[in-house]
Structures are given as C-alpha cells and as structure tokens.
Amino acid sequence: MSDREHGAAPLRENTENPRFVSLLTKETLALILAGGRGSRLGRLTLWRAKPATPFGGKFRIVDFPLSNCMNSGIRRIGVLTQYKAHSLIRHVQKGWNFLRGEFNEFVELLPAQQRITTSWYQGTADAVYQNLDIIRGHHPEYVLILAGDHVYKMDYGPMIARHVESGADMTVGCIEVSREKAKAYGVMTTDPDGRVVKFAEKPEEPDPVPGETEVSLASMGIYIFNTQFLYEQLIQDADDSFSSHDFGKDIIPKVIERQKVMAYPFRDPQTGDQGYWRDVGTIDAFWAANLELIGITPELNLYDQEWPIWTYQEQLPPAKFIFDDEDRRGMAVDSMVSGGCIISGGVVRHSLLFSNVYVHSRAYVKDSVILPDVEVGDRAVVKRAVVDRGCRIPEGMVIGEDPEADAERFDVSPGGVVLVTPEMLGMQLHHVR
C-alpha cells in the first residue's frame, strides 16, 4: 500500500520547502536504545553511557538520532537508558524538554525499571519488551527502533514510506561496508527485490553484496516494525528461554524465515551516494570521526541549516585567543574551538576543542580531541590524543611523543591514540560526566 493510500502526501520535492516531511512519521513512535556501556571505548565510558559521550565540539552522540527524529517529523520518542545513565538523563532533561505535551509530542526517558520482569534489560529486544505497556499506551501505527550510539544524519520519512509501500512486516536500515569491517556488524543477504533472505550477526565470512566481492550490507541498528507484528515477536522471544533477547541475534534471523523483512539502503536522497554513518565505538574511530569535522568539506556537515543538530549547551562567551609575542602567541590553526575556550599564549593545530578548554602559555596541542573543562598547563605538549572531560594536564607534561612512556601512564589505542582521563592523572571527580 502506498504512502498516499495511508492518507499521507507522497514523497516528492516541494518547491517551497525542498525537504519534504512524510505524514507517516506522525503515526510513528521512535525508541532510542541508549543503555549501552560502549566497552570498546575503554575508560572513556567509565562514568557515562556511550550515547552520552561528547562529540563534535558541543554535542553528545545521542543528539544525532534525536535530531534525526525531530527533523524527520517524529515527535514521539522514548529514550531507553540503563548503564550509568545519570549524565545522559540530565542532558535529555535539559536539552530536549521543549516539545509540547498538549500536541502529543514528547521525549520520554525509559530507564530499566523491571516493569514486566524482575531483571534489568537483558538485550535490545528485551529492553523494548519491558516497555510494552508504555508503547501500547501511545497507540503507534509503526515503531522505529534506533541505536543511540551512532553518528549520522538521516531522514527516516522515506524509509518508513518504503516500508509501508513494500508491505513489509519489518524493514532494516543498512549501509555498505567492506567485508572486513562487516565482521563487526549484522550482515544481510538480499534477493533482487531487496528482501532479506539471510541475516548473520558478526559473521567470520560476511556474504558480499550481489555483483561485488569485497562489499557487504551491514545493519545500521535501525528497524521499522508494524506495531502489532512487533508485539507478537517480542512476546514470543520473551517466552523463549534459549534466546539472548536481541534483535540482531534472535528476532531478525527467526522472522526472515516466515515473514517479509526488507532492507533499506541508506543513501543521500539528492545524490544517491552512500550516506554518512559512523560507529564511533573505539577510541581510534571516535578520534578520527571528530577530527574529520575539521576538514574543508567534511562528510558530516554540522553547518547545515536545513538539518540542524539540536543539543543542550551552556550559555558561554566566545572563544578567546590572547598574547601575541613571538614565543607566546595564542592561536589555533586548522581547528575547531568551542565557546568558553581561552587559548592563552598556547598553540592549537588540527584539533577539536570542546567547551571551556584553557590552553596556557607555550603549551602545544596537535591532532587531538579535547573534551569539555580541560586545562592544558604551561609548556605542556598534547599530540594525537583524546583528553577526557575535567582533566588538568600538568605544566610541562608531554603526551603523544613517547609511546612507551604514554603506555605507562595512559591508555594507548591500536592506532596510537592516547586516551587521558582524570583518574589516570590521579584526579578526584567532582562533577557530572
């Protein structure tokens, strides 16, 4: 059945507003799975869930799926939390409380609370199952399930419309990746019509895309369900004592055998090219994705006024650069510097500084991602590093030049990126992460 037959306007270019919003999104409830620890990020997620991790100078990772929902016209959203969720909950409460309940618009926090069982969330499917009574109370026609820990911009409207038009019971958002990278994801095999005929979670030998040898179709962790069908599958899965209660491992492999599951390739609607999507689940990936933003024309355009990324941010003064002596010049080159930063006679090159970073005289920061509220002391050197929130780099300390010395004090990634946290510097924590 087509989009128009469901009472929604067709997907087409609107001359007054080139970004058309499908009315099917009004009938959709989005659930963002934001309870994961993100263990591959090591001690960067020691005190926060992965979706709460800062990204891009002023945002948190969870802001991207939330903003995608807003910009797609989806205004009924549940955020499912579990692991060390305090900073995530505070962020959502402060930054995402602008919707109007009178119009049935909301961002609800759904922490693990043993509503149906006596256990915490056991898997992605179980997390949704334990909130079935809440979902039923909203009476959605479709349920859109999103991972809360990926960075991308995507209009969910065309995907929902494709789901309805195809007559699918479930649709999976997917992206093409190399076969080597595909080993870390759920991999789909499709027939010529895009129907999923096989789904393998983190396979050793991923199936290639038809006609290719080194490219596979990976799940983005984005699922659209017809609501009644979702209820049935979750209840059946909850009754299966052998299930791990996960969408990728359990539910999808079962339903493709007897139900219609479609793949939806994520592409730029204007160019048809592969869309930008990053799983920033390792320190190397997190570091690289942040520094990509510094480029002249990065794939992820944060300056796109037609697709803004919303967030909560403090009211801070502009960044300031002071002193102009030959050996004491406050400057940043080929970098992004956020509000509240003071570069006081230090030099910053090819780096991304979050809010309230203070770089003291003759300090040198290069190829680094500096999270909020960091202080870099006089003559300190920081290269090829991720420095966590609240760190105070002592005067004269050198980071990123001697791998052996770095490994004794800090964590060093396989790609040679140094992770520095307050605990590694012997600091006590006195603020929300």
TrEMBL record:
Record family assignment: Belongs to the bacterial/plant glucose-1-phosphate adenylyltransferase family.
Organism: Thiohalorhabdus methylotrophus
Pfam family, one: Hexapep_GlmU
Residues the UniProt record annotates as site (Could play a key role in the communication between the regulatory and the substrate sites): Q82, W120
InterPro entries documented for this protein: ADP-Glc_PPase (IPR011831), ADP_Glu_pyroP_CS (IPR005836), GlgC_bac (IPR023049), GlmU/GlgC-like_hexapep (IPR056818), NTP_transferase_dom (IPR005835), Nucleotide-diphossugar_trans (IPR029044), Trimer_LpxA-like_sf (IPR011004)
Alphabetical list of HAMAP family matching this protein: GlgC (MF_00624)
Alphabetical UniProt keywords: ATP-binding, Carbohydrate metabolism, Glycogen biosynthesis, Glycogen metabolism, Nucleotide-binding, Nucleotidyltransferase, Transferase
Domain Glucose-1-phosphate adenylyltransferase/Bifunctional protein GlmU-like C-terminal hexapeptide: 317-420
Record note on quaternary structure: Homotetramer.
Name the UniProt record assigns to this protein: Glucose-1-phosphate adenylyltransferase
Binding site for alpha-D-glucose 1-phosphate: Y121, G186, E201, K202, S219
Occurrences of domain Nucleotidyl transferase (ranges): 30-292
